Amino acid sequence: MNALMVLRIALKALRVNKLRSSLTMLGMIIGVAAVIAMLAIGGGAQERVREQLKNLGSNLMLVFPGSTTSSGVRLGAGAAQTLTEEDALAIAVDVEGVIVAAPSVRGSGQVSAGNANWATQYFGTNNDYLIARDWPLASGRLFEPTDISSAGKVALIGQTTARQLFGDLDPIDQVIRVRKVPLTVIGVLDRKGQNALGQDQDDVVLMPLATARNRVLGQTQGRQRRIHTISVKTVDGVDMKGVEERIRELLRQRMRVQPGADEPFTIRNLTEILQAQEQASRVLTLLLGAVASVSLLVGGIGIMNIMLVSVTERTREIGLRMAVGARGVDILKQFLVEAITLSMIGGALGILLGVGASFAVGEFANWRTEITTSAILLAVGFSGAIGIFFGFYPARKASRLLPIEALRYE
Prior knowledge:
By secondary structure, the chain is α+β, with helices and mostly antiparallel strands. The chain contains 14 helices and 14 strands.
């Protein structure tokens, strides 16, 4: 028998018991749908972590001042003003694998423009900060060298700040006031979104470092040349741990830290943190897929059970086919194709149900889902393999029946 005839006979046999065939396929439908939906949910979690990594800035490390003690109370990291602009310059020049090391100071307060005002955070920094954060401009221009050297009264603002202060108006060349200091908006930052902690990164005002210290934060900090953070961006593919150790060694030398003494600074490798989150999301995806695949195995067991019943019910038919010339391999093909057909039809319907369930989860649960072609191919391939695996034993049992005994079966 050719393949087309075997398929036609298999479909005819399945149509004889439509309800039983439908119930048997139900296990495969649910199994395939569960695998696709679970992989889509896990894939959405991975994609969200990747977006956070992209928004944060790739290959990024932050250097903070260390802690200090006041009246016997140990304060947290960043309390001691131990970092300077010269430290940032030394990291950028002397540490191999570093692209930029951007110094910055920060503050927060009311920012006003005309009759509108908004509470936001502001940073004093330079153009290297935008390179470190992979943060382009949506419009306008960057700081010019004269803006940085002469504490120019200029600012770059984020999308949220621009919307709150100016609405639909173009912010470029408009004047905002930060702690009563007038600053001209020369650029609007591109949309960045939320960071890993859920904070709005677009709610920000950037100004030259000297402007923030001398005009906004006060003359004292300006004379000290102290900074709050150094944002370090490294070359793609570089050993982040190695760069971190070289930065630590350089700062210990510059600050004359004795061996065994506490370091007056803290280095945070944010890329490693998010990569660990991505790895956890990947493990979660595999776990969800493995749990969902159990239902595929249950569906396969159902197929084997029904095929064994079918072999028993059609014993006389098998004997008759063999008596008129059918070989054992023909009987094997017939029942094996029936099992595979059950599995594949269930798999096809499961794809539709799984895709629909994924969209429903994304729409009603407000959870991002990521449906991939590989997940669909994996589920369909798994369902076909289950049809072959669990259908082989009943098909082999049918092909080994003796025609005389089969014809005598009541």
